[in-house]
Known about the structure:
This protein is mainly α. It is built from three helices and no strands. It is rod-shaped.
Amino acid sequence: MVSTSSRVWRRTQQMTLSLPVQAGLLIGLCMLVLWTFYFSTYPPAHDTVHKTRHHTLMVACH
């Protein structure tokens, strides 16, 4: 007989490996990387994307 914990583990694996969850995790990771890149206060990173930030309509620089 299958124990409750192994049933819970199997259900968790199925949900985690599903395409919508993987797509959401990928989108979240990309958003985090872009946010970190665009809004960094670290001078070399800020200076590199400064011009790009001015030309992006939805991302304010100043």
